[in-house]
What does this fold into?
Amino acid sequence: MSTNILELLQTVKAIIHTFVRFLPLGFYSFAYLLAALFKDKRGAILLLGLVLNDVAGYSYKNYFKTIPNENCAIFGKKTDGTALGFLPNAHTEIVAFVTAYMYSNMWDEYKFDLIPFVFLALLLLLTIYSRISVGCKNMKDVVFNLITGALLGMLFYYFTGKRYSEAKKGLFEKESCDLGYNNYRCNEIRDGTVILKGSEKRKGKDPKEDEKEDKSYDNYYDNE
It folds into this structure.
């Protein structure tokens, strides 16, 4: 019985390590699909941030001639005739970058979103545990990567936060307008969304019928 439990724990640990190992590629894939398939500008902004963050990491490694740890390879251990696959940035730095960007958006909008907040915090802790457990990083490296990723994430939000909020707000307004309030239409203004009565035809109903319905209530209070 105890052997089965240990095997189960080992399997769970292996799954966690595999998940974390490919997590940066998951961020790239998510941002790309969000921008390309769903035409969400937030995905394009996040993808741009990930690229710029990796460019900064690549420049840093080249300038300081850092030697990568073999345990940090994303595509497994080195065999004869093969090369290790390393990312420009550490996993903890990338997750810290994304987390700092999302948290900055919450702070900027004065809106605490519980589910993304908890999810990103747990994801960050899971990444720290995994990279230390596999021997990729020590605590000193983790702290440095967290600080670097957080600073770059907040800096990127400083320059793109307004566009990100506008894209987020525009998506919300589009969803509200697509609800279809009978003969009403949405009219976007600078401060938000207002619902204005329109003259467009409703599906299967003539606008003249709406006028008749409105007039039927004109003398309602006069007859009382």
Observations:
- The chain has a mean pLDDT of 82.
- The CA atoms of residues 30 and 43 lie 8 Å apart.
